[in-house]
Amino acid sequence: MPSFDELWPNGPKFKQSADGFRLGTDSVLLADFAARGRHKNIIDLGCGAGVLTVLLQSAYPSARVVGIEIQPAAAELARENMAVNGYAGEIITGDIRCHRALFAAGSFDLVVANPPYFPLSSGMPSPDERRAGARGERECTLSDVCQAAAYLCRWGGSFSLVHRPERLAEVFSALRENGLEPKRLRCVQHRPSAPPNLVLIEARRGAKPTLEFAAPLLLTNADGGESEESKRIYRRI
């Protein structure tokens, strides 16, 4: 039987199933990172089960928040997750590589993505079709994501994404090749002595080349306890 997990008491909840979607941290951290300023039109590229879509709709209740997902089962789960949280939502089953056929240029002032982290040449793909598509660049590459973001983002608008630190040079290159200038970078670390395991990046369309380094986001303290910032993000303070 499916169940629903809450991120925090009386907060957003998400449908779980025994063999499919599991609620991870990447989209939660990205939602917190991206939710700065005022936004009226937001799109989540490759929204999966809709975690990031729901969190951004919660942060911007009066905004138009759209999710696009190529896998029909994941898109349907995203619709259910939007509905269970009381949002009508706009989840499109479609391919972000066909963005020009789906939307007008510059339709959004905030574009977000939690894209596949691993190129096809890296390691063994998951035998599970959904996991393989979510983790590896089988259905879209980093370049595909940046091309779509550049087209969809209005001039001066923002594109925020989460990725792996070992691919940071590739991310910056793909952003700049598509007219998106990296403006803010934040590393995520499990503990103060550990190297980053994720990077949060904000780029802006048509911006000048200056980059802000935010303080690292530490998930735990030196003693292994949950950090104050992690508690803030998960509403445990």
Structure in words:
The protein has 237 residues and is an alpha/beta fold. The protein has 8 helices and 11 strands.
Mean pLDDT: 90
Weakly predicted, low-confidence segments: none
Shape: globular
Number of helices: 8
As a whole number of angstroms, the C-alpha radius of gyration is 17 Å
Give the biggest sheet.
Answer: 9 strands, mixed
Total strands: the figure is 11
Oligomer: single chain
**SSE sequence, one letter per element:** EEHEHEHEHEHHEHEEEEH
SSE class: alpha/beta
Helix content: 25-40%
Distance between the termini: 32 Å
Percent range for β-strand residues:
25-35%
Brief descriptors of the model:
single chain; 237 residues; alpha/beta; nine-stranded mixed sheet; two-stranded antiparallel ribbon; 8 helices; globular
